[in-house]
Design a protein that fits this description.
The chain is built from 6 helices and 4 strands. It is an alpha+beta fold and 171 residues long. It starts with a helix and ends in a 14-residue tail after the last strand.
């Protein structure tokens, strides 16, 4: 975040976003801290404090609170192609009966990056990251389609990833 914009943010805890779904409300300073970490997850707390107008200790406390509340995670994001995973796909899944057990089983698979329950053409969307086409076929045919309740699947193999960002958290 640009320093002028951060400087205009209030440290008053009453200056917060309303929570629509029961999640923690974040004040503008916490949002600014998140933006700083999204730009560089290894940025020192002292540098973040200078940018947002807090002490290093105050930033450390806020970051820990954000982590404890599950608001954010600090992780290393890799490019699957550079670490040996040559095939990514989105898989649309239609389910008979309760979605939860199927979603839970999918979430346990190491190849599955995320699971989304939807209200569209599919009951579930999952992103899978595999080593190659044979691995993808095995995951879809022998593991996903074999789950009790899975009625059908449709796979969308990624040809090229044009944009992947994690900066949406504070806009």
């Amino acid at each position: 975040m640009h320093s002028e914009a951060v400087a205009s943010r209030s440290a008053d805890p009453r200056d917060s976003r309303e929570s629509r779904n029961g999640s923690p409300s974040l004040d503008t300073v916490s949002l600014a801290i998140i933006e700083q970490l999204q730009q560089d997850g290894r940025r020192p707390y002292a540098a973040i404090g200078k940018a947002v107008g807090l002490s290093e200790a105050a930033v450390r406390q806020r970051v820990q609170k954000l982590l404890d509340q599950g608001v954010m995670q600090i992780v290393a994001v890799t490019d699957p192609l550079t670490v040996g995973f040559r095939r990514q796909a989105m898989v649309g899944i239609n389910v008979e009966g309760d979605l939860e057990p199927v979603a839970d089983a999918l979430a346990e698979m190491p190849e599955v990056e995320y699971v989304v329950m939807t209200a569209g053409s599919f009951d579930l969307l999952v992103e899978v990251v595999c080593e190659d086409d044979d691995h993808l076929l095995d995951v879809i045919n022998k593991r996903i389609r074999a789950l009790p309740g899975v009625r059908s699947t449709e796979s969308f193999v990624y040809l090229k990833l044009k944009k992947q960002t994690y900066m949406w958290g504070t806009r």
